[in-house]
Fold:
Amino acid sequence: MNGSDWLPLIALVLVVSSVLLLVGFAIFRRKRTPVFREIPAFTHLRKAIGRSVEDGSRLHVSLGHGSLATPQGATGLAGLSALRRLADLASTSDKAPIATSGDPSLALLSQDILQTSYKEATGGGLPDSTNARLTGLTPFSYASGTMAVMSEEHVSTNLVLGSIGVEAGLLTDMAENQQSFMLAASDSLPAQAVLYASAQEPLIGEELFATAQYIQPSPMHAASLTVQDILRWILIAGILLGAFLKMAGLL
Amino acid sequence: MKNLLSTVIAILAGLIVLVGFFLKIPILLEIRTILLDWAVIVAAMAVFVGVINMIRVNNTQLSSGQNSRYYNLVLMVSLVLTFGLGLFFKTGHPIMNFIFYSIQMPIEKMLMALLAVTLLLASIRLLQKRLNLFSVLFLLVTLLILLGTAPLPFGEIPFISRILRPFITQILAGAGARGILLGIALATITTGLRILLAADRPYGGK
Structure:
């Protein structure tokens, strides 16, 4: 068996152990929510949502252009999960939240989420089915279409949660011009560098995937973060062990 | 009932594709290929539905008399024209190439150039917005990398371009980037598993 033959086996062990841990933590720690480190961006987000509900302005969630059929799809799914919670929080607002995306399947799912949330909150269907929008199919056309939404739809709170590249800088600039709140996160490293310099509240790395838990905690999302931490420690131990064995000439 | 059915289909499809990656059982691989082919067809149909959504949004704005109605009109005319020409001429036809290389690409490049200006402004505003050690460090490193890369009138600064820049980009930034990417990869695993376990159901609005 050479090195590459081990990879599927290692991946299988990783997936199976993650499933067991995820289910285990979600069931056994259902009543005791673990405490995660405080991320000030989420505290500011809650205040911004409160303000937008009070003044009747709109909440805008931008889900990026990561196709669900690619590895970037996970970022979009994390964004959708957060959108559901944000839509619930903003359900008492005069104006329903608006979701923009650069991928058609994300646009369809976000429409489904906004409609379900509105239906559960009011008992009726979403009055405006154009609240979930496909704003462009290429990165820059998506950014320019989203900028138009930010400037024309009376938006006071913006969230960029998804796979987006450096064009995120154009969105943060628009938010700055509109003097609206902007929390932004992406899975792309260049985009994270851009967001760090330009966004009001940037999230770095996997913080994007924790958004749903920080907005509205649930046992499964809490378990998910705990499993991530456990896997991280296993990875750290593996890297250290590998480096040690390599230095000792055993690898 | 509809939600239950979509949940069952989603879990089954996800499981088959995942297990097919680990176990090379012929029948499983065959089903996996069929499912992936279906996913491609559904994704293509989603583009069509997405474009209809775009037309509806622009049509609503056009009829509501907003300030941006002229832009909406330009978008609708361009969309219909490009779609019509695309149906008539094949991909790679000079007219289609003209639309792509002479209209679409220059516009996107112009936005890229605009981005450079907005980033410069954002860097200037960074200290005003968040005055802390990390912001100062961020700006200092940006300046050092630019100094180590940009052609200077008096030639390069050897210490910066030969020692400091490679050390920052290849060791510090490289290691940091790997750490961030590993964190994202782990989060991707748990996000995928939540979907597979039906804890998150974006297809049912949950």
